[in-house]
Amino acid sequence: MKLKDQFRFVRQNMKKNKTRVYMTILATAMGCAFLIVLASVGFGLQKSVVKEITERRVITQIDVHGKEINDQGGFQQLTDRDIRTFEKVEDVKAVTRRKMLQQESTFTIGDYLEGTQTFVAHFPSEMKAGFELSNGRLPTSKNEVVVGYNFPLNLAKKDADEGIYDEKGQVKAEYRYPGKLLGETMELTVRQFKDGKEEEKKIPLLVVGISKKPTKEWAEDRSVFISEELLKEIESFTGTPKGIMLDPNNEKLEGIDANGETYDEVKIYAKNMEAVQSISDQLKEKKYATYSVVNELKEVNMVFMIAKVGLIFIGTIAILIASIGIYNTMTMAVTERAPDIGIMKAIGANPKTIKRIFLLESSYIGLIGAVIGTIVSYGISFAVNFAVPLIIKQAFGQETDLDITFSYIPFVLPIICILICYGVTILSGYRPAQRATRVDVLKAMRREI
User: Fold this and answer.
1) Integer Cα distance of 326 and 324 in angstroms
2) How far is residue 176 CA from its own chain's centroid?
């Protein structure tokens, strides 16, 4: 019997018992849809968490917090010697390093004021890492500075009340500095306690550049970048490394391990994401404390991998329940088609051919159910992603700020489901198929088994 004839024979027999076959297919489809939708929740939440992590951090960035100096967990700050070590590591694109002015900096221009963080940055490495200007140029002299993109947006009137901020936390236009700021001079005020009194020094600064707008809507850059020479001038006034303010009751720097030649913020940028783990491992061997998004993603993916396997296992139980219906359907088919089986054996049909026919039929039922279940699951997934945010909005009276994908079906998930379903249906149809090969010809011709 040719394979084409076997398929035709299976289809003809399935049509004889449409209701029973359709109900079995429906049960299989429901089991497959349940497995896919259940597992899609795990895939969806993983996608949301990974997206949230990668959007908040540069994927090729490695933060270096210090170097371990003893077994008790003590760390020392990084110096130029460490920077040179990092730059020699293979696949390192750039090493940025910043010193932070260790007091809140107040910048004024006319009647407008803003307090923010002030850094000394190494601009050649910053540019390699992707630092860009939206306007202006880089500093070339001591009193020239670059400000962050959001700095002008938060430069507000000195006498403004608390209602100056909008919903995004930025200064409203009517309270904001109206000028362009680029090319204008503003004053930096630094402070120190001397002889029990607070003294101030005002340093004029020329704004020569404004950084590029952050790529993320939630990100904000209000930093001001000054020169190394200007930091030395500030240190000369305060008498402390990086402008640290002394205690008004004790004008000696005690209990603070501060060195003006160390860096407060060091970041390594790899050439590509694949190199991040290798660089991190090399630095770890040299006792450096590091952090990267890749390390966090590895842990997150491990947790979700376990969760997804568990969800797929639970969904498989639904398919196993549906397999009972397939087993019952195939057992009834063998009983009802005993005469047909007897005729086939009487004319010389091979037992393997008979077994194959019944396995084909059970496979038909399983695969059709799996395809229907997959289509239905995509519809349910779309409905869930559309409806759940609306439900949350109705329940809490506002839209959620989190961009969450509640259900996501990757291409591999339906394939896994179809393979599981196919395997289960083959197992369900195997015993009835074996029973068909053992049908006695004479009894079958008398319609008995």
Assistant:
1) 5
2) 36
| Rounded CA Rg of the chain | 36
Both tokens assigned to 433: 């198929």
Residues 56, 112: Cα–Cα separation, whole Å: 31
386-412 pLDDT, tens per residue? Answer: 888 787 777 766 555 556 788 899 888
Q: Please give the Cα distance from 312 to 304 (Å, whole number).
A: 12
Rounded Cα–Cα distance for residues 239 and 102 (Å): 12
The burial of 282, by beta-carbon neighbours within 10 Å (0-12 exposed, 13-18 middle, 19 or more buried), is given as middle
Residues whose CB falls within 8 Å of the CB of residue 151, separated by 6 or more in sequence, listed in order: 114, 116, 181, 210, 221, 222, 223, 224
Q: How many CB atoms lie within 10 A of CB 3?
A: 10
Cα separation, 245 vs 356, in Å, equals: 86
Position 259 scores a pLDDT of: 53
Rounded (to 5) percent helix, strand, coil in the chain? 50, 20, 30
| Location of structure tokens 């997959």 | 374
Q: Whole-prediction pTM value?
A: 0.67
CA angle, residues 438, 443, 358, in degrees to nearest 5: 40
Handedness of CA 43, 48, 53, 55 (dihedral sign): positive
